[in-house]
Amino acid sequence: MELFLNVLLVLTSVLLIVLILLHRGKGGGLSSMFGGAVSSQLSGSSVVEKNLNRLTVFAGLLWAVCIVALGLLLKV
């Protein structure tokens, strides 16, 4: 169980890094390389940005659950 949680923690950490870098900042971001800039200029927020936000929140929650579960597992 501990090994599974450690592997899941590493995978979600890498996923969070990638997802956060894909977000559009003040001057654009890596998401503009994939065509997100054109659609976000036409409308306030594109479907791609909304899905990216949802995926980032889900990965963050999964990462937090892994941290808490590892903490409880190693405390015992």
Description:
This protein has 3 helices and no strands. The protein is mostly helical and 76 residues long. It is elongated and about 50 Å long.
Described by the principal axes of the CA atoms, the overall outline is elongated
The largest sheet, given as strand count, sense and whether it forms a barrel, is: none
Tally of individual helices: 3
Unreliable sequence segments: none
Strand content: under 5%
Percent helix among the residues?
over 70%
Helix and strand sequence:
HHH
Q: What is the CA-atom radius of gyration, in angstroms? A: 16 Å
Count of distinct strands: 0
Write down the overall mean pLDDT: 83
Tally of individual domains? 1
Structural class by helix and strand composition: mainly alpha
Distance between the termini: 13 Å
Topology of helices and strands:
Layout: H1 2-22, H2 36-42, H3 47-75
Task: Output the keywords.
about 80 residues; about 0% strand; mainly alpha
Nutshell version of this structure?
The chain has 76 residues and is mainly α.
